[in-house]
Specification:
single chain; mainly alpha; Growth Hormone, Chain: A; about 80% helix; about 0% strand; globular
Length: about 375
């Protein structure tokens, strides 16, 4: 083991802390709205376009904090930034649980959405600086799979608690516990490495020939995937005629399948980054088509859930591994840039595509998103990913 690396037992603790905070910030604070969308629509009498605008609230804050996270992690340390992200998740979801009007819910989603942008980039720095090379891809893949754990747990909570406001409050309690564990595990501010010095993070450092495919692909993946996360449950409950319980079981399956993202590092090692990325996008494309064309068929919905859960998180894991190599001088800033592009897709997708769905129905929107993912395969990584 190299000097300065975490002792052998620490990668497990680091991965568990990352999985926990990613679960509550992405799986609950960011994607929890889509899980509860049918109940929220019924409570406030909202259209698909209005649902899309509410969903966009969390992505506005997510973009802002993703931009700041890479820089702040280097200056303040991973522990402080992750603690701030966890605090945003707790406060925002508490506010959402107390909301009696759409405007208060919007404010809660705005604060909660800030959490996801803060918690993931600091882990990229810690993994790159404090773990041996052989363990980094596997730990990053495990941390990115936290989204699946969070979605599965969120759906189970929603199944037991038949009230969307109480569900948000329970999410906040879980977020507080996960944040506490991360604060215990994470180191404070890491000393700068003499070999790299201080990296000046100007626009040309992020946007360069080597990063073009990575950032462009992240944008398109976010745009297409936003359709599934925001409107999938609403499509099943509306066009598909599935009950609220069935729709939430669907998301449990998505979440459990997402845990397959933990194996992304091994897939990249065996198949290569390009093949893994293309296969994952193909799986996500199939998931969108199945749900969009046959929302009332339970078998198709379950197959779609398995495909999407596994494929989406493999895509995110490959992007995380890829960004740590493209932006090797400052992994957290590079991962933050990738997350910003992904978040831009999530920001513009729900309001625009939700408004389109009010006129065309969800089916056409899901098919269009599937086509976009197929086009994204042209941006698969060409370089060797370790």
């Amino acid at each position: 083991m190299s000097a300065g690396a975490i002792p052998a037992a620490r990668p497990v603790a680091l991965a568990s802390a990352g999985i926990g905070v990613v679960a509550v910030t992405f799986g609950m604070a960011r994607y929890g709205f889509g899980l509860l969308a049918p109940d929220i629509r019924a409570s406030f009498g909202l259209s698909s376009g209005a649902l899309g605008l509410l969903a966009a609230a969390s992505y506005v804050a997510y973009l802002a904090t993703s931009v700041a996270a890479g820089v702040l992690s280097a200056r303040l340390g991973a522990r402080a930034i992750v603690a701030a992200g966890g605090a945003c998740a707790v406060a925002g979801m508490t506010l959402a649980g107390l909301a009696q009007t759409p405007s208060v819910l919007f404010a809660g989603l705005l604060v909660a959405g800030a959490s996801a942008g803060l918690v993931f980039p600091p882990f990229s720095d810690v993994v790159s600086r404090r773990l041996p090379i052989a363990r980094r891809a596997r730990v990053l893949s495990a941390i990115s799979s936290g989204t699946g754990w969070g979605v599965a747990l969120a759906a189970l909570v929603a199944l037991v608690v038949d009230d969307w406001r109480t569900t948000w409050l329970l999410f906040a309690l879980i977020a507080a516990a996960a944040t506490g564990w991360a604060v215990v595990v994470l180191p404070g501010r890491l000393a700068p490495e003499h070999s790299t010095g201080i990296v000046q993070r100007r626009p040309h450092w992020f946007v360069c020939p080597r990063s073009g495919a990575l950032l462009g692909g992240a944008l398109l993946v976010g745009l297409a995937s936003s359709v599934y996360w925001t409107f999938g449950v609403d499509l099943l409950a509306g066009d598909g005629g599935l009950s609220s319980t069935q729709s939430r079981i669907f998301l449990v399956v998505v979440g459990v399948a997402s845990v397959g993202g933990t194996l992304s590092g091994d897939l990249v090692r065996r198949l290569g980054g390009q093949a893994t990325f293309v296969l994952a996008l193909a799986g996500e494309t199939a998931a969108l088509l199945l749900l969009g064309l046959a929302p009332g068929h339970v078998g198709a919905a379950l197959a779609s859930a398995v495909l999407f859960g596994a494929a989406y998180n493999v895509v995110l894991a490959v992007e995380a591994i890829w960004s740590s190599l493209v932006f090797i001088e400052r992994p957290s800033a590079g991962l933050a840039a990738t997350m910003v592009m992904n978040g831009l897709g999530f920001l513009v997708g729900p309001p625009i595509l939700g408004a389109v769905a009010d006129h065309t129905g969800y089916g056409a929107v899901f098919v269009a998103a599937a086509g976009l993912l197929l086009a994204t395969t042209a941006l698969a990584p060409r370089e060797h990913l370790e």
